[in-house]
Design brief:
By secondary structure, the protein is an alpha+beta fold. It has three domains: about 5-75, Arc Repressor Mutant, subunit A (Orthogonal Bundle), CATH 1.10.10.200; about 85-130 and about 205-250, Alpha-Beta Plaits, CATH 3.30.70.980; about 135-205, 2-Layer Sandwich (Alpha-Beta Plaits). About 45% of the residues lie in helices and about 25% in strands. The protein is globular.
């Protein structure tokens, strides 16, 4: 199982996901606020904001929360000023770690990330040490019962998608960054329901982990994903299915 955005599918139980709903909202509010500050408060003219709003609505965020976040971004309401930054390093087994963050205190954030990596047997690296491994792509998932694979493939490729693969009960569509919005809009106009529509980072190579290191890496990814300042956490780990089954059984 590869360790880009799909790693979240390992995060088993619904109860744990529900418990993190407040943190998800916090991260989405940050993204909406920063997207607005950078590109303006009109979603029609700001693709990043439009995507953030769609994700927020998909997570059932109240409209009032979205509106307040936009107003903070435009300066109509007072709010904390967040700075976008990235962190790179290594986790258990030498797996690469790439983090996208938004913080109002970089010293605090870097200190907490360094401590989390160190505790897991990894370390924080210099900028650029692993970033080259992760290619930014558009990433869209659609449930397999929403449309036939052939029909969805034709629609997505005609709109500019790079690839479509079937993984478990979902189709996974990848696009170049510049084609993401066109593909997303084509699916929306064709009334294709999307479970995920976001920009992500996909590793160009992977590191295979045994049960011990795999378990430690998954625990670390959970900690990083749960951190208030980290918007997205990526790794290039690969855990074979039999090893993953053993990890889940021992959890």
């Amino acid at each position: 199982m590869s360790g880009h955005s799909k790693w979240a599918s390992i995060k088993h139980k619904k109860g744990a996901a529900d418990a993190k709903r407040g943190k998800i909202f916090t991260k989405l509010i940050k993204e909406i606020t920063v997207a607005t500050r950078i590109g303006g408060g009109d979603p029609d003219g700001n693709p990043r904001l439009r995507t953030a709003i769609l994700i927020a609505k998909g997570k059932n965020m109240p409209v009032d929360n979205i509106t307040r976040a936009i107003k903070k971004g435009t300066g109509e309401l007072e709010g904390v000023q967040y700075e976008e930054t990235t962190y790179e390093g290594y986790g258990p087994g030498g797996a690469a770690i790439f983090l996208e963050a938004m913080t109002d205190n970089k010293n605090r954030t870097v200190s907490e990330i360094r401590a989390a990596l160190g505790k897991a047997g990894g370390n924080l690296g210099e900028n650029g040490c692993v970033g080259w491994m992760f290619e930014q792509k558009g990433f869209i998932t659609v449930k397999t019962d929403a449309k036939s694979e052939d029909d969805l493939m034709e629609l997505a490729i005609d709109a500019g998608a790079d690839d479509l693969q079937t993984v478990d009960e979902h189709y996974e569509i990848t696009t170049a960054v510049e084609n993401f919005e066109t593909v997303r809009k084509a699916l929306e106009e064709a009334d294709v329901p999307m479970d995920t529509a976001e920009l992500t980072r996909i590793p160009q190579n992977t590191v295979s982990l045994d049960e011990k290191k795999g378990k430690a890496l998954l625990k670390l990814m959970d900690i990083l994903d749960d951190h208030d300042d980290i918007q997205k956490a990526y790794s290039n780990f690969d855990i074979p299915d039999d090893v993953m089954a053993a990890i889940i059984e021992s959890s």
